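## Example record

The block below lists the input lines for one assembly entry, exactly as stored, with component labels intact.
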Amino acid sequence: MSRAVFTSVLALLGASCLDSTGNRLVGFKAQASGDPALGLVAGQPYTFTSGRGYEVTLTTARLFVGAVYLSTLEPMTASGSVEAPCVTPGLITGEVRGGLLVDVLDPTPQVFPAPGVGSDVPTRSAQLWLTSGDVSAADDSQVILHVEGTAARGGTSWPFVGKLTLGKNRALPPRSAALPSANPICEQRIVTPIPFAAALDGRAVWLKVDPRAYFASVNFGTLLQVSSTPPSYAFRDDAATADQADNALFNGLRAASGPYRLELVP
Amino acid sequence: MIRRWFTVPLSCAVVLTASGARAGEYQAPELLKTTEVKRPAGGGEAAQDHVLVEFTVTASGQVQDVAVLESAGEAWDHAVRESMASWQFKPARHEGVPAPARMRLSLKLLSAQSDGGAHDEPSDAGVATQPEPPPSAVVHPPDHAHDRPHVVTATLDAGAALVEVVDAGHPGHELTTTVSARSVPKSRGASDVTIDVGQLKAVPRTTGGDFLKLAPGVLLTNEGGEGHPERIFLRGFDAREGQDLELSVDGVPVNDSGNLHGNGYADLNFIIPELVESLRVIEGPFDPRQGNYAVAGSAEYQLGLTQRGLTMKGAFGSFNTGRLTLLWGPESTSARTFGGVQLSRSDGFGQNRAAQSARAAAQYEGRLSDSLSFRVQSVGYASAFRSAGVVREDDFQAGRLGFFDTYDVRQGGEAARFSFSGELHYHQGGFTAHQELAVLARSSRIRENFTGFLTDVQLPRQQPHPQRGDLLDRDTTSWTFVGRGYGKLRGRVFGRSQELELGYFARYDTTVGQQQRLLAGADTFVPYAKDLDLEAKLTDVGLYADANLNLTDWLTLRGGVRADVLTYVVQNNCAVTDVRRPNNANPPGDSSCLSQRDFGLPREPTERASAFGAAVMPRGTLLVGPFQGLTFTASLGDGVRSMDPQFVNQGRETPFASIRAWEAGAMWGGKLADEKLDLSTRAVVFGTRVDKDLIFSEQEGRNTLGGATNRLGGLAQARLKGPAFDVSAHGTYVQSRFEDTGLLVPYVPDLVLRFDGALFGDLPWRPLGSPLKATGGLGITYVGKRALPFGQRSDVIFVMDASAEVSWRWASVGVTAQNLLNTQYRLSEFNFASDFRSTPPFPTLVPVRHFTAGAPLTVLATASVTLGGGK
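Predicted structure tokens for the full assembly:
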């Protein structure tokens, strides 16, 4: 009896301090832009040197973000299981639904059309959904990444255009006949786990995109030449025919570490 | 000359004087007030000088169900009935508690002349109108009534007392008083509430579960529609559909062991509300008779039908709701002998709430000898209902869905229950024995979709698929065999009456249950996956000892210990639902229940698990008093909830959750205003600790295992009965918290207030010489803002129900209105993640507010006709 009485009295005392089930729901504004730390100027081309030594001048860089989800999964855990389902409802701490075409060369915050909602349960990672519709749909014609510019190295230049989609062209064959859904298309479309340790408190969530990371491993010499006069190159948008440059850009687009950074801002 | 006709009951004050009568156990009714019988208009002379009548004296002292056994002519019989309707008795008592009694008396019709010499002949209408006679003239016992006691023999047992009253005009066997009383359970403290429904039947109630609202701290919600069991909240517990509340009807268990919707799932919809006579609620595990599921407490219904004769009752009103009830209480039998059938249907308010049901119940109580009585009962019930389910608050606010709309019209369910039970009750001297057996067959199917398109996980072995829908289809069929009994010894030790009871409870359940997921589509009931397929054989054998020790005149100790042994044998027919590395030559594909394990090695899809456990639960109550009606109590007890068969692992110990509860309280009961008012009050503070509580999971649509919780609260209750009213009010405040964090337990209400009231009496009009009687009922529920997940609070609930009825002789008409103010309120509120594809294409994955709509104003017109029964 003494324990029951004791714990009950403790509960009563606690009642004066805690009158909640814990945590709370919050709304927030979500925005995205090119990373201001890069010195981007809206409307101006952006030049940088890639990891492979190319001097890349971007004149266009647009990223379509279908949705952003925030998760309680630690980044290490989130990437640990190849069989984790794409949608994990019990772990989501915030969501921003509604597509936004982000001008990555513009450092000015571009606000997502729909406000974000979530809770103050600690967030550990984020997901970018690079799709215009059902994340598991077989096909999607939406251009997710549109880049244009010129790369130069050793006196050679590669004017290029890249328009990447994530549809049937990105479907991967199953690992085995017994596991037909082992490589679902949704895994291609969801960029995760992007490290983001925060607790939503009403401040805005700012997605900052660093376009340099897209091109870090691109060997422009393997681009598909689509025209010789004037020379013009293009990234292939098909996993089946992709060469190094195509795969490197696609992998850069989907890299959880590098191109994307999230912050809470007033 | 004035001819006055009045009756003289031969036993104005029945006194138990015979040897063998145990003073204090039974007391026959005592007549307090009579009225004269007016000469019937045009009635002519009486056919004989007396009328032999049989009638019931209710536990509140009123006369009901007058049956004429020897007639003095129809008009005179009617006049006698009219007179007796206003007689007042001091009710019979059994073990100190008022109990109904069936009496048989010979009423001698006398003529007398007034002393004043004024003439009051019958009026033209034929009804005698005369000044009120002096009291001495009203009661005019014959000489022989003074000469000897009316009671010459008495034979008593705990089931009934047979008291023979001998009159010169009738042999003893014709004049009897039968006190229909059961051995009254001894109070287990201030949280032991025995509710005599009585006149509060006037408060509108549509289900048997609604009567629980008469107990302090009870809130009923329903997210599943009219045929869906009520979700019960009691003193800080979310007992879901009864999982934390031991429910029984006349000793027959209601909780379903092994039901997939929840272990202990209890559907009270099989009860015909008109047959609920009383209800005993013990809020806490303080009585050794309480068994499995008595975590928040227990509630036992007692069925009965006070109204004798054949009653047909109809109701029709809003939303094409119709209800037809047929009740039969054979004359010259106790209220515990009855039959009843009820058919109901409704289109329901809003979308997808149509429901229909049929209920039947019959019971016979009789005696095999002076010391042996029996009772048999059978109950049948079937229902089919549709359910609207939850609505997202953001969809409602944006106008995408109406307040009473639904996302999935396939939600609903079906239920059936059939039971047969019988009991033998033996009482001789200071020994009582009781044995009850019951067999039950039940089935329930419930289709619920809480989350829309969210939880259909794409497994690597499956063909690629989109979310196929979260409509869960649960079905459980079970057979239950129950035996329970006790032996009780009474004796005088240390100069005081003491009792010792030893009893047992044995229950065996065999259940089969499946949970499937149904493919989305308006009229599609195609299962695409099977989540569960269980067969369970469950046994619960409990033994208890209970003592009632009267230590002094003012100090009583009641309690003992109960021990339960529970066994589980569960066959999981779907033991393997996934395999990490399947066999390439024999891929499992989309099958739900697999025949291979890791690396594709073969195995059977089934698996058995058995478990065994025992619990010893001491319980006791100390009562100090009464001091002028005031009694102080303190109680302490342990209870258990058995393991859900879904979670049984081989060798895992059961029961798996235990509770310790304590309380301290005070009760006062007594008469006021020259015994015209009967007031009972109580106040209690209480606390409980549950080591493994159940917390509602929306994704599962059921309670799932949580951590340890504590509750601390208080309640107050009062009930006041008068000659023309009966009101009850109670309030409970409780805080339920997780032990480790101190955070509130979600969903349970902390403040519940309830008022039930009834007014009744004669109207000033007397068509054809019979009074019009009016009855009004009012029920008010207030529930404070409930804690919800993520620090949210629900809306307040404030709902008022009312009824009015006018009756005349054998007929009555009335109207009931539920949610009289037509308040648009959210009966249940939740915070969880769902995706009903209201705003495609991206899923909604964060918790948001959901609600189930409370019923709007619902008006029913009622009419009833009673044939026979002496009313």
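Residues 1-24, 112-168 of chain B have pLDDT under 50 and may be disordered. Residues 74-84 of chain B form the longest helix (11 residues).
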